[in-house]
Design goal:
By secondary structure, this protein is an alpha/beta fold. The protein has one domain: Ribose 5-phosphate Isomerase B, Chain: A, CATH 3.40.1400.10. α4 links the parallel β4 and β5. α2 crosses α3. The longest helix has 16 residues. The protein is globular, with a radius of gyration of 14 Å. The termini are far apart. The model has no long low-confidence stretch (mean pLDDT 97). The chain binds D-ribose. D-ribose (RB5) binds next to α3.
Length: 149
């Protein structure tokens, strides 16, 4: 199970720490950049990670920008992506259980390495509960279809 990683310059340093954590827990990842603190545009990187999730190359995506806001908004514009912007482990676990989230977003200027690692573990160990939540997630897909041009 591979994880697609991407960040803008604001998330670059935290992404490096995330790679170390994923390596430590034996999780495979593909890094779609950026590869330095040189200024870039977060939508470009949200799209790269989202495409890897949609194509099936990666099971999940984790994206990081300064706040986590821009990169999660951009990822969520792509039909089929459910990107959870979480700064606590409970929300991350519930994003898998209830929303079948397939991407996670962080703000590197908001949280530190330790909390990020806990949130990632909660997300990766979570599981979609299905049942009544299935219908709600399907309604999200219906909205995507309705507004697709
Ligand atoms: C870049 O300075 C910053 O705007 C970006 O990382 C992110 O926080 C946007 O939502």
């Amino acid at each position: 199970m591979k994880i697609a990683l991407a960040s803008d310059h604001g998330g670059y340093e935290l992404k490096e720490k995330l790679k170390k954590h994923l390596g430590g827990i034996g999780a495979e990842y593909v890094d779609f950049g950026t590869d330095s603190e040189k200024s870039v545009d977060y939508p470009d990187y949200a799209e790269k990670a989202a495409e890897a999730v949609l194509s099936g190359e990666c099971r999940f995506g984790i994206v990081i920008c300064g706040t986590g806001i821009g990169i999660s908004i951009a990822a969520n514009k792509i039909p089929g992506i459910r990107c959870a912007h979480c700064h606590d482990a409970y929300s991350a676990r519930m994003s898998r259980a209830h929303n079948d989230a397939n991407m996670l977003a962080f703000g590197a200027r908001v949280i530190g390495e330790g909390l990020m690692c806990d949130i990632v573990d909660a997300f990766l160990n979570g599981a979609f509960e299905g049942g009544r939540h299935e219908k709600r997630v399907e309604k999200i897909s219906e909205i995507e279809r309705k507004y697709r041009k």
